[in-house]
Design goal:
It comes from Phytophthora cactorum. This protein is α/β, with parallel strands linked by helices. The protein folds into two domains: 136 residues, no CATH class; 33 residues, no CATH class. Helix content is 49%, strand content 13%. The protein has nine helices and six strands. The strands form two sheets. The protein has a three-stranded antiparallel beta sheet with strand order 1-2-4, with helices on both faces. The chain has a three-stranded parallel beta sheet with strand order 3-5-6. Strand 1 and strand 2 form a beta hairpin. Helix 6 packs parallel to helix 7 and helix 8 runs antiparallel to helix 9. The radius of gyration is 23 Å and the shape is elongated. The N and C termini lie far apart (73 Å). The mean pLDDT is 80.
Length: 224
């Protein structure tokens, strides 16, 4: 049965057809996810190159084969190297379409250290982006892909960003009608780390008071 499925996959058969065959041949309640896992295993068996670049290209091509997924690759014209890769699954696009009003943009570094724990389950991912650096060009490429795959981007009312103040100008250009908000958590964390540097000469006690004052200033509702 697996040999037949492999032949169907290599011949370009659609997943629905493969699913139908597996249900009829096995007589079991096969799920679409089972077909995805089976095909993914077959793909891994076809990998013969030791070049990571080839593997990434193959994975992106396979990912983009699904009509409900969206994948985009951007190259730096100066270096001829890939500088930005974006991808969305159907669930991400659906959530972006249903709840476009608030958009949060954050860059994560060294995520393997924390097993990619970068969400608190309050929101949902709208797009994953791999970039060579947080340059304006890369951010522009990432948001260009987001616009192309999500028509509801025009309904974004609020943009929440981390401590990177350069993003304020970027979103002011891309979303002139949206309100930009700096994330309190990122600002407080950044200022506390800055205050802890030896350059400022704060003692341990002074540094403790400074950290408390930073938190109070950021969270105050008084603009005076």
């Amino acid at each position: 049965m697996e040999r037949v499925v492999k032949t169907m996959w290599q011949g370009g058969s659609k997943r629905n057809k493969t699913l139908r065959y597996l249900k009829e041949a096995s007589g079991k309640p096969i799920l679409p996810k089972d077909v995805e896992n089976l095909i993914a295993e077959m793909r891994r068996e076809t990998y013969t190159s030791l070049d990571d670049n080839v593997h990434v290209s193959e994975l992106l091509r396979y990912f983009g084969e699904s009509p409900v997924n969206a994948v985009n690759t951007f190259r730096d014209q100066a270096t001829k190297m890939t500088s930005c890769i974006t991808f969305q699954i159907a669930h991400m696009r659906r959530m972006a379409r249903k709840f476009p009003e608030a958009l949060c943009m954050d860059a994560t570094h060294g995520t393997s250290i924390n097993s990619f724990m970068v969400t608190n389950n309050v929101g949902t991912f709208a797009q994953h982006t791999l970039i060579a650096g947080e340059t304006k060009l890369n951010m522009k490429s990432a948001f260009k892909a987001f616009k192309q795959s999500n028509a509801a981007w025009i309904d974004v009312k609020v943009v929440i960003i981390d401590k990177d103040f350069t993003k304020l100008d970027f979103f002011a250009e891309e979303l002139p009608n949206a309100t930009n908000i700096l994330c309190h958590f990122h600002i407080i964390d950044y200022l506390k780390r800055e205050a802890s540097k030896r350059d400022y000469g704060f003692t341990l006690i002074k540094n403790t008071h400074v950290r408390i004052l930073i938190t109070m200033m950021v969270r105050t509702e008084d603009e005076r």
